[in-house]
């Protein structure tokens, strides 16, 4: 009985010739796919940087102001001339540096205050401004009883540039003067700052400050406006609430820079309580008529008159 023999193999042919050719082709395909994938990742990254900010929020549309000046006006009580002077002063400054203004009406926030002092309106006003300008980076709250006296100084060059802010930050000093046991962080870096405050000789100031848009700002403003604080009957309302929050919430203190008072909050000669070297001098950015609205012996409009005339001459040059 005979059995069929298998076909004779060509012993001279390579054992894996066909498979080797297929492997080489496969490697080429994988290499091409890897290059294409890497190119797509690069394109995606570049587009994400173009359309999104570093915080993961949509980048600002063209023409968005980098900074918003927030001022609360009591149109029901103040004269039209007084309000016009305040708005003209802010508008001139904003126009010079590409900022914008948010003029809030105090009466709009009274229903949210729950019978707390009207000075609490600073908090919902800043929140309102942030909601109205979601793509702006900084918000400069400026008390209405204050004037910008040196319009040539931008907030960036005067305060916000990292190198300049680093030189201004008061580190390892009592947060609330004169002798708070809680001190500002000595290792804080300018890029980590979300809130810039000043202090007079007794308290932190709620009348002039800068805050950066973001999660920190929302959290901080929510804490500050908590009904517990509004109803606690602090002697100085939102000011003492601010003192308390900054001292006993390290997460807030960790994002706060304290700067010399005259940087953005110089007091007029008629204002008591200025800190060391806290009274206005020629060339300062801001003069604030602190207390003019609570002292019955003073008049905000009369006190502003000479400073407004001086400012008017400055912008005419």
Concise summary:
The chain is of the alpha/beta class and 317 residues long. The chain has helices at 17-51, 80-97, 122-132, 155-160, 162-168, 215-224, 227-230, 238-248, 250-253, 300-316; strands at 67-73, 100-105, 138-142, 146-148, 195-197, 208-212, 256-258, 266-267, 286-288.
Structural commentary:
GO terms for molecular function: alpha-1,6-mannosyltransferase activity. This is Galactosyl transferase GMA12/MNN10 family-domain-containing protein. The chain crosses the membrane at residues 30-52. Belongs to the glycosyltransferase 34 family. It comes from Aspergillus coremiiformis. The protein is α/β, with parallel strands linked by helices and 317 residues long. It has a single domain, classed as Spore Coat Polysaccharide Biosynthesis Protein SpsA, Chain A (Alpha-Beta Complex). Helix content is 39%, strand content 12%. The strands form 2 sheets. Strands 2-1-3-6-5-7 form a 6-stranded mixed sheet, with helices on both faces. Helix 2 (80-97) links the parallel strand 1 (67-73) and strand 2. The longest helix is centred in the first third of the chain and has 35 residues, at 17-51. It is globular, with a radius of gyration of 31 Å. The model is unreliable at 1-11 and 48-57 (pLDDT under 50).
């Amino acid at each position: 009985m005979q059995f069929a023999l298998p076909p004779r193999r060509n012993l001279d042919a390579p054992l894996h010739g066909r498979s080797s050719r297929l492997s080489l082709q496969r490697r080429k395909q994988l290499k091409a796919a890897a290059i294409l994938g890497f190119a797509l990742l690069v394109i995606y990254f570049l587009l994400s940087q173009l359309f999104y900010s570093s915080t993961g929020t949509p980048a600002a549309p063209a023409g968005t102001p980098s900074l918003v000046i927030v001022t609360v006006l009591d149109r029901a009580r103040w004269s039209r001339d007084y309000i016009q002077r305040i708005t003209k002063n802010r508008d001139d400054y904003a126009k010079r540096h590409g900022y914008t203004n948010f003029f809030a009406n105090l009466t709009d926030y009274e229903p949210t205050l729950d019978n707390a002092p009207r000075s609490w309106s600073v908090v919902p006003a800043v929140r309102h401004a942030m909601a109205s300008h979601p793509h702006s980076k900084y918000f400069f709250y400026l008390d209405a009883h204050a004037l910008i006296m040196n319009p040539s100084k931008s907030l960036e060059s005067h305060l916000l540039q990292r190198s300049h802010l680093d030189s201004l930050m008061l580190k390892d000093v009592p947060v609330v003067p004169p002798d708070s046991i809680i001190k500002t962080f000595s290792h804080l870096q300018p890029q980590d700052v979300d809130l810039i405050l000043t202090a007079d000789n007794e308290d932190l100031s709620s009348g002039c400050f800068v805050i950066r848009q973001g999660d920190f700002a929302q959290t901080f403003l929510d804490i500050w406006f908590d009904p517990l604080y509004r109803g606690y009957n602090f002697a100085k309302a939102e000011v003492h609430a601010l003192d308390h929050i900054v001292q006993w919430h390290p997460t807030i203190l960790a994002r706060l820079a304290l700067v010399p008072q005259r940087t953005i909050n110089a007091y007029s000669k008629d204002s008591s309580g200025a800190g060391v070297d806290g009274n206005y001098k020629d060339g300062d950015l801001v003069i604030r008529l602190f207390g003019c609205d609570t002292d019955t012996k003073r008049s905000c409009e009369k006190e502003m008159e000479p400073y407004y005339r001086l400012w008017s001459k400055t912008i005419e040059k």
